């Protein structure tokens, strides 16, 4: 299964794997590992960046500097075919301010830029997330200090970048609409020095407000260099289809090659921490959402010889026991191999759900199905008109997406550097 062949002109979803998975999927299968894996399956088969994978291929990924910088082991990122894959390098800003990374800001931003120039196609500059204000260990106690340090990091990136074909994205943060506007008012003045925008913070999924800011930047000539817009931390199908509508509108009215992407670590963080896998798309006139299932957390709670109940190219080869080998009722039945296999299965389900949601919206636009939430159906048309310059369409979009049940709320757990 090559998802790329079916993706049409949809906004690209960038799964954000953790360091465990990218090493597992690149390792040679030893005799011991061969015994642990299902018959005929090798660890490298789970490398979804490899177009020759017998399971599935998706050539797009986000990887964070948190896992990459200082890691000398081979991974599916470092060993990828760069002519056939795409990597967006996140800066790991939250890991830095939370204490998970011990480097100083100066050394971290230099090391991150070096890594992005060596291994990535697009990079996000090092930012100080406004979430840092609520993290005692961060040392950042107010909005202004987060903004000031990020501006300093932007100046560093501008002055020290050296690879002309690496696109760098300026970061936009904010916990509230007021903060997001204030941050944008400063960061947009540096935007002509960058090739795109990374939309972060608590308001990152409030797409109507971001369209308002994009339009303002266009009117003032500050959007001319923007070739890539990335929304951090979501795999929600409701947002995915709006991101597609945004990309199509921007390509139609502004720039034909502009890319919109979004990422999440859901199939890695949630699977490997909580045993929660994605199983598919729930679609009706009221909602688009990912369906989930939580795996048993004690051995002996299941028949290990039962075929795995959910479908994917890998799961179709597996029993429940292949994913959960433990049988002791006092401990978790999972292990490293099973967790990485579950991540691979969950990612297939996640990609399938996002692809299905986009297809359903396309069909609805052509009058061929009714399984699209009414607000989403309406929003798609409004986004096109708003990007084209209609002030009334933008007002209508803001009203529509602020209604109870229509607003898309960001979850901080979806960020790659919290995996």
Structure description:
There is one protein chain. The chain contains 14 helices and 10 strands. With 419 residues, it is an alpha/beta fold. Helix 7 links the parallel strand 5 and strand 6. The model has no long low-confidence stretch (mean pLDDT 94).
List keywords for this structure.
globular, alpha/beta
- Rough outline: globular
**Structural class, please?**
alpha/beta
* Quaternary organisation: single chain
Unreliable stretches:
none
Q: What string, H for helix and E for strand, traces the elements in order?
A: EHHEHEHHEHEHEHEHEHEEHHHH
Helix content: 25-40%
Distance between the termini: 27 Å
Strand neighbour order, sheet with most strands: 1-8-7-6-5-4-3-2
How large a portion of the residues is in β-strands, by DSSP E?
5-15%
Query: What composes the largest sheet?
Result: 8 strands, parallel
| Total strand segments | 10
The helix count comes to 14
Arithmetic mean of pLDDT: 94
Computed Rg: 21 Å
